[in-house]
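Exercise 7.
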Amino acid sequence: MSQLRKVEADGERSGHPRGRIRLPRGSLWVGLALLLVVGGLVWLLSHTPGWARPGVIRAEEGRVEGNVFSLGVEFDARIRDLYVEPGMFVSIGQRLAQLEDRVYRARLREAEARFQQAQLAYRAARRELARDRQLALLAEERAETELAQREAEALGAGQRTSRARREWERLRALGANEVISPSELEDAETAYLTARSSLRSAQAAVETAAVDLRRARAERSALQIREVRQQERRQRILELAALRDEAQARVEACTIVAPRSGWIVEARAMSGSSVRPHDPILTLWPEDALFVTAEVSERQLTRIGERQPARIHFNAFDGVTVDGEVSAIILPATGTVQRRVTTPLTPLLPDSARFAIRVQITDPGQLPARFSLVPGLTAEVRILLNEDGPGGADEALPVITEEGGQTGEGMEPTAPEGM
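Solution. The predicted structure, written as tokens, is:
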């Protein structure tokens, strides 16, 4: 019996099954339940959509881009000199190319000469017209005064003639009755004839003065015609000035300058080549129209709204980060423009579809003076999220239709650090 207890004790020390500690059967079920709960939480967190988790949307494959200007001319020309090449930074007003302008300069000299000649003729005619206008006015005033005087003299002569005639007729009646002498009657008749002659002279003077007045007024009328012609000359001068200005603008257009500061990204012509109207010669990328294009997934897109804040870190500049905000969404080619995306588009697009977004740099001046943004630089973009939803939910977000990419990072459930 003692030997049997010894064997059992040795079995307990050696780990024999008969020596194991037995747990209550209920504890095993509790452990299994805890394991199921933990596994369920892990699965739930791993399958929770991005729009349900606060934090940031992170896109590491961002790239600096911007709107470009195509520089060209509106007329046929030939490039004489090209002063820039792709990749060069140019300042506003800097000369980029020189077109052949000999023909246009000759046209400008001709237009300038015709304008100067017409202007000199116009000024001379204007001075002559002003002088003739003054002389005609004085002549008309003198003719009017002369006519008035001659009419007054003719009126007085007519009155004197009437009195002399009445006196002569009275004395003639008295002479018939031999009341007066024949000499008195003869004197009265002579006075009447003299007064009548003076009246006729005064009437002739009135007619002469009237003719002079009509001539003066005709000269003034002729001056009015000359004034109309002078206005036509003035209009012609304006037309010649417009032709001169057009020729001047054509000569100035032969010198292509940078309308804004930025980078030359393409040169489609070279020295000696000919260009046609509206053909682009150079492509300019303005430095103040830069933005960053990054890619997000379909689920991440539902958490992005207009003017949503973002932080941009440029890989070329260690430790340099600037502020930005979402300005547009570039959807894959769907042909439609819509408001801010609020629902997934899985029924229309594959699960692997990526969406490009544009993040505008709100203040490029945040970059230190020794750093300058260059198109093509890579950047990491972190779009800050709110638990209640994206910023600007009530405003329309511009949607641009282009081809989407296939790269980018997913959403991180952690809060932004150091951004």
